[in-house]
Please model this.
Amino acid sequence: MKIYIDRDKVNARATVANLMSVGGLLVLLGSVLLPLFVPAAASISLLLLAAGGIIAMVGIYYSNRWVRKPRPEESLDSALKAFDDHYRLYHYPRLPCDHILLTPSGVMAFEVVNLAGSFSNRKGRWKESMTIGRALRYIVEPRVADPVLVSQALADDLGRGFAQELGSGLDVPTKALTVFTHPAVELEVEGASYPACKVGKLRKQATLSAPKLPDDTYNQLAAYLERLTLD
Model:
């Protein structure tokens, strides 16, 4: 499998996340020390306390997304590494989805969730079981949307982008999956076609029931996705 990644985007956002995390903590520390040395600045210290808390929480939120190991692309690369070079995996292209797999039959989009917890789909209803730990971390961790809604939105957005690039008369089969990568996640779904899976089952799910793309269409898609990822 060929892998393409916008490494500059990853490094830049990881740097911002680290700077905000550390900067927020320094502002919090300043809010504590300032009244000790300048008693008249108590009101300013309250503002620093609030600002530092907000900056630190935003930094932690983005650290969970851009710094915490294993990174989403690392989990996907490992799960799909057995595919041959007709499969091309693009990380962080300038598209609504961060991870896209070009297959001989079409395109797959992956929404990656690296959270511990229990998630389920029963009788068409998506649910996340809220534990005390998850509730305490909720403000600094990503939200998990219903994979059905995510799948529909991603497929529509990608379809419009491909139509603009390749022409509206060309139909590119597209499938989207929400992939849960955390080793402590519990996922219970009804129906094999539900657009969510654990990363250990991703290779079996990363297929499209569609004819092989014409070579020129495949090559156009590959060039388009590579340009959006690396340029």
Summary: The mean pLDDT is 89. The helical segments are 7-37, 42-66, 72-80, 132-137, 147-166, 202-205, 215-230.
